[in-house]
Design a protein that fits this description.
heterodimer; A: 900 residues; alpha/beta; 7-stranded mixed β-sheet; 4-stranded mixed β-sheet; 34 helices; 25 strands; B: 75 residues; mainly beta; Ubiquitin Ligase Nedd4, Chain: W; 2 domains; 6 strands
């Protein structure tokens, strides 16, 4: 395409060396390893080795029994029908116990087991059925060895082979289970949450725009049938205090008390909960039976004794509350996976588990029943259990959003009910286990408060320094401000706000203090007290929306119209900003309404029962979380992606087009369509600005590209662009309150990228900030675009805190630091000072990759040698080899801080 | 005695050695209750069948905790 007269081609300049991906001196010499390396106990090491060798595997056992029971009860009350189906699923799961496990039970019958849930959505299996059958036929031509020995991809089953079919590029399913998968999916056609929700969402005026928003990938996914629960904190109080029999007994009493009285739904709720608890009880007993069998055939005396102890523990927990720390940990794990088995869920967080379990641990330590090495070993085993959690969902969700992770976030620190520091010795051991048994899950978050002791904070720094990517550092006081503002209308006090924790990656979630009574002493333990967050509008790609603004409603990648022409002349910066706000407002409006309908279908067809039982005050009210049973219900939010690319682009347009008038808007449009004279990321195979390939007409566009790259960039303490960023944040955080959730509560702002900055970048043309077509966006929400932060960490902090973080559920800052910059005790102190500096400015979250970028490049070339290398992406830690190249390239390109 | 690790492989519960579903049977082999070994099962297509002539099922469905399971009587 030819540029306009007086276009940039008439002013050639050299931009060939304008890439900045480090701050300080570039790393040289040997590739720096992480400073410290710790090893797990021999037991945990064996389990981790087994994990490294295990592939993500799906089975049809649970969905088969669920569907079979569902079909047997066509006229039943829906919540009872659902409870019976879940009960049948739990009762029939075949137990698997691995040698050396101290904590047992899993989602499904494999080490990394999971299963499809066609009652949520069956469309993928229906649409892919023929293809899957074809692949199953062809897979026999490949040997299983080609998959089981591959390093690249880690545990992902990326292709069909032997008797295994690959689903969604991640999960393996035995070929002999494929027909039943397709047949089961067929039974849910027109009955699944997806299908029913879709039927009714089309009644929303302007529904066509929603379709176009999804097709253009301005919006990433619907939450109602993909991941309807999660990004929340569990509450283990009721099983810990009353045991399963106690809960069943309570439900039966309550059912008797409310039967025949108004608000009859309470009767069905209590009946449904007791049914599911019976199913979970039988599931535990089945495992006890398996442990007994294993003990009967075991020749090693130690292992035999451990199987016998497992059997005794499970037999006890099937009916009674836990007796000690080991019991309590096992019971917590059982209920964690019981919730995961009722829905497709990501981000189900155990919350402040070290404070929940502390009373049991302290008592065992005092009695001499347990010591620190035994505790550490058990905590390592718990890490292996959490790391093995897989979430079965479509490729778009598993790869595009989750990067294969499931975000079970464990928090340490914070403050107590009465306002004192809340850290304890068990949390020190949790941090230690995170180092000795470095695995992606549970990821750790440290709720930073000025009251926390220095020793505890330095332990957190030690863990972050080791390169695990955790703990993330979170501002306790900023979170509490957000919570009181958001949940105050539902009665939240400052005292209650102190019970909060992170749900999922980085979703501030409400909590409550629960009175755990042990030996006649009350311990106020924190636990989650609201349903899923990050449901509602997810995710909105801001750079793609700006692209549609610039092309008057058109998606130029597909040639399809997304919105009616906006009618703004775009002859001033304000006109562009107003057109953007107009389209954004419209997108949020239609997405809110359609998602409310999907979630309504979810709560009617597939109501939560296990999670509802756990969450105060569902049991007390006799209502599930879909009927406002929770204490706090204003959890729906509006989530955006790539604000930094949007703001950098607005700054470039403002400066280059409207203030300095070096380029016309038409020229910008043409340069964008020409990708500034470069091949697209899909063509070049590179998803950052590094290693891009120029086209023959590069000279035509290089000046405009240079102007774009050199326009003010967020992250440098530059008031020009920071003012735009602050204006965006203030407008966004305020406008979200105009929209009402399904539960008639105001919505709020959420801004974390997770992995969506990769697929959303992949479908977006070049942007006015100089980013090229198809490349990954900036991660997080206040991270600088890779390589564009040139003034050091404190300048980045200044930019990131140019707005009030307490107005949003979260903000996300990710940084990469070279290991040499924080070496030794002095380095640790310096590192803590850096973290404090950001949090004291009002930053909500900061997290670090402590790694030499050259190691990441090596790992990209030789993945087999780096099976255990972990990196932090955006709210979660993941094995490098299980990340897609779009994210890998972005992490490599992030600015590496060589000095602080 | 087969303990599945993933869809490709497992461990022998007794000897802790690695095995695959496709491996030849060893001396320790014991049948696990599955629909295809149940007297109630009838085949109804490739990898699909019926339980008690009514409910759809599949031959490799584990039946360890199915209350209706009955081993096929061997002649």
């Amino acid at each position: 395409m030819a540029p306009d007269k007086n276009s940039p081609k008439d002013h050639p300049v050299d931009v060939s060396s304008r890439t900045f991906n480090f701050y300080g001196k570039p790393a040289s010499g040997e590739i720096a390893s992480r400073e410290i390396s710790k090893e797990p106990s021999p037991r945990a090491k064996k389990l981790r080795d087994l994990y490294f060798d295990a592939k993500s595997s799906a089975s049809m056992e649970f969905p088969y029994w669920y569907t079979r029971r569902w079909e047997e009860l066509p006229g039943e009350i829906p919540i009872i029908r659902r409870a019976e189906a879940l009960k049948s699923g739990f009762e029939h799961l075949t137990p698997v116990i691995y040698p050396g496990e101290l904590l047992v039970m899993g989602k499904a019958g494999y080490f990394r087991g999971s299963y499809p849930m066609p009652w949520l959505s069956e469309a993928y299996f229906m649409a892919s059925g023929d293809k899957l059958y074809r692949e199953a036929l062809e897979s026999g031509k490949l040997t299983a060895d080609t998959v089981t020995t591959m390093g690249k991809g880690g545990g992902n089953v990326t292709q069909s082979a032997g008797n295994v079919v690959s689903i969604a590029g991640k999960f393996g399913l035995r070929k002999e289970e494929l027909p039943i998968l397709i047949e089961t999916a067929r039974k849910w056609k027109d009955q699944s949450v997806d299908d029913v929700g879709h039927k009714y969402e089309q009644m929303v005026p302007g529904y066509h725009e929603k379709e176009m928003l999804m097709r253009s990938v301005i919006c990433m996914f619907d939450s109602g049938y993909t991941l309807p629960q999660g990004r929340e904190v569990l509450n283990y109080y009721y099983p810990l205090q009353y045991g399963i029999s106690g809960i069943i007994g309570y439900c039966r009493e309550q059912a008797n008390a409310v039967a025949g009285y108004p608000e009859m739904d309470r009767l069905y709720f209590y009946k449904a909960v007791s049914l599911v608890m019976e199913g979970i009880r039988q599931w535990i007993l089945n495992y006890a039976e398996e442990a007994r069998f294993l003990a009967s055939i075991e020749q090693d005396e130690n292992q035999k004794r451990e199987y016998q102890e497992i059997e005794k523990r499970l037999l006890h927990l099937a009916d009674h509350p836990p007796r000690d720390f080991h019991d309590a940990t096992q019971l917590v794990w059982i209920f964690h996976i019981a919730v995961l088995n009722e829905d497709a869920i990501s981000g189900l967080s155990p919350g402040r588990l070290g404070q929940v379990l502390y009373p049991y641990w302290k008592r065992d330590i005092q009695k001499g029943k347990l010591d620190h090495p035994q505790t550490l070993e058990l905590l390592e085993c718990l890490r292996m259990k959490f790391t093995s959690i897989d979430c079965f969902a479509s490729m778009g969700v598993v790869g595009g959003v989750l990067s294969g992770n499931t975000f079970n976030n464990l928090c340490v620190g914070g403050i107590t009910k009465d306002g004192n520091q809340a850290s304890n010795e068990l949390e020190m051991l949790i941090l230690e286990a995170g180092m000795t048994c470095a695995t992606p899950q549970p990821t750790l978050s440290l709720l930073y408060d000025e009251k926390l002791p220095e020793e505890f904070l330095l332990k957190g720094v030690e863990c972050t320094k080791i390169g695990t990517g955790y703990p993330a550092w979170i501002n306790n006081q900023v979170a509490m401000q957000f919570l009181v503002e958001n949940y105050g209308p539902e009665g939240m006090t400052v005292e209650e706000a102190r019970a909060w924790a992170i749900g999922g990656c980085l979703e501030t979630s409400p909590g409550s203090w629960m009175p755990l009574t042990l030996d006649d002493e009350i311990h106020w333990i924190p636990g989650g007290s609201g349903p899923a967050t990050s449901v509602g509008v997810h995710f909105v790609s801001l750079p793609k929306l700006l692209e549609v603004v610039l092309f008057d409603g058109m998606d130029m990648r597909t040639g399809q119209r997304v919105f009616p022409a906006h009618g703004f002349p775009l002859d001033t910066y304000e006109s562009i900003w107003n057109a953007f706000k107009h389209y954004f407002h419209r997108a949020v409006e239609v997405l809110t309404l359609t998602n409310n309908i999907q979630h309504d279908a979810w709560r009617k067809i597939s109501p939560s029962l296990v999670n509802s039982m756990l969450k105060p005050d569902c049991l007390k009210k006799g209502k599930d979380i879909g009927q406002l049973g929770s204490r706090y219900n204003a959890t729906f939010n509006i989530e955006i992606c790539a604000a930094v690319n949007l703001v950098n682009s607005l700054a470039a347009l403002k400066k280059n087009v409207f203030e300095e008038k070096k380029v016309t808007l038409d020229e910008y449009r043409k340069a964008i369509l020409a990708n500034f004279g470069h091949k697209t990321a899909q063509e070049s195979g590179s998803y950052s600005l590094l290693d891009q390939v120029k086209t023959a007409d590069y000279d035509t566009w290089k000046k405009i590209h240079k102007l774009s790259l050199e326009a003010p960039k967020f992250g440098n303490d530059d008031p020009y662009v920071d003012k735009i960023f602050g204006e965006w944040q203030t407008w966004f955080c305020n406008m979200t309150h105009e929209f009402r959730s399904l539960y008639d509560k105001p919505m709020y702002a959420c801004q974390i990228s997770v992995s969506t900055h990769a697929p959303m970048g992949a479908v977006t043309l070049a942007s006015p900030d100089g980013r090229l077509a198809g490349t990954t966006f900036a991660d997080g929400s206040v991270s600088a675009y890779p390589g564009s932060d040139r003034n050091g960490p404190y300048a980045l902090f200044q930019s990131a805190t140019c707005w009030d973080h307490a107005r949003s559920q979260n903000s996300q800052l990710n940084m990469k630091i070279h290991p040499s910059a924080i070496q030794g005790r002095e380095g640790a102190r310096k590192f803590l000072d850096l973290i404090r500096a950001y949090l004291r400015k009002g930053g909500f979250h900061v997290q670090f990759n402590v790694v030499d970028s050259r190691m990441l490049k090596n790992a990209q070339q030789q993945p087999d040698k780096y099976r255990d290398l972990m990196v932090r992406v955006a709210g979660f830690t993941q094995y490098w080899v299980e990340l897609g190249k779009q994210i890998q390239d972005e992490v490599i390109a992030r600015t590496e801080y060589e000095e602080l | 005695m087969y303990l599945p690790v993933d869809v490709f492989k497992g461990l022998c519960k007794k000897q802790k050695t690695g095995i695959r579903p496709e491996d030849p049977q060893c001396d320790l082999f014991e049948k696990m209750p599955k629909c295809k070994f149940c007297a109630m099962y009838t085949e109804d297509g490739k990898d699909i069948g019926k339980c008690n002539m009514k409910a759809m099922t599949y031959p490799d469905l584990p039946a360890l905790h199915c209350t209706a399971f009955q081993w096929i009587q061997q002649n």
